[in-house]
Amino acid sequence: MRKKVTVVGAGNVGANVALRIADKELADVVLVDVVEGVPQGKGLDLLQSGPVQGYDVTVTGANDYAPTAGSDIVVITAGLARKPGMSRDDLLAANSGIVKSATEEAVKYSPNCILVLVTNPLDAMCWVAKQISGFPRSRVIGMAGVLDTARYRTFLAMELGVSVENITAMVLGGHGDTMVPLVRLTNVSGIPVTELIAPDKLAAIVDRTRNGGAEIVKHLKTGSAYYAPSAATVEMVESILKDKKKVLPCAAELEGEYGVNGLFVGVPVKLGASGIEKVYEVQLQDSEKAMLDNSVAAVKELVEVLKKQMGL
Ligand code: TXD
Asked: Kindly report the CA angle at 77 between 278 and 107, in degrees rounded to 5?
């Protein structure tokens, strides 16, 4: 039997997640959105791409969750996107309500699903989904690190004029200006990047990575990035559905790792059929640990606000 993935939010990221899942023939997809007609229309349009693209999965749209029943994965992208000048944190109040209701509905129909969160502010939204679903940490995963790492790898490949595929890198921490790209552990086919790029250039690339989302918002003016975010989400979905056990940077709830408890933080995890199958604790140098602590503090602040707002 084919796998089934629900994508909540049929906007820019959601529709492109559906498109990429269909293109890779990974699963049947159900798009859910509050706007009447949009998920149905996009679903039908995607379905009609099948004969040309050569996929046989079905793509449908709905405004309710009954058609999502029995999903293996539920990707939540529903929410408001950042507008220019708006920080991720401004989105907190609006999007926490949306993620709460989406989680409640989704898990009612798919109690065994794996939740993949995309909505910003990402780490805080993961926390909401975890509280509301009551799922174990293996089944609540946030997408941010794969995207941040992809941006970092892109900029490094541009600088060196080499294939993006040869850049191996890791970005830790929360999804925001405090993220921690680990320069020390970045390499080009095994060659430490610090041997290939001067420190000031590397610092500029790290800075551009941290502001990677804002750079795109500035260009687009009316929304935020969605091609790379959807690609990153589907890499995670694929690793789970195919039990590939890829090691990817994802937002995971920490249970003492990195000295953190009960908060979602971007860390390397193994993604397989059960969701998060392992959290890797990388040995950090003092300066890296300080940056990570700073990032965790930013996530904690948001969660404290949420605890008050939502009474959780
Ligand atoms: O790295 C990351 N995690 C991110 C996060 C990368 C890119 C985008 N990121 C965030 O994802 C972004 O800040 C937003 O919070 C979400 C979705 O971004 P997108 O660009 O897809 O926004 P759109 O195009 O505005 O789509 C959001 C859709 C839109 O169709 C709304 O009608 C719908 O969400 N929506 C809902 N659907 C279902 N249920 C409810 N309650 C709902 N509310 C709004």
From this structure: 65
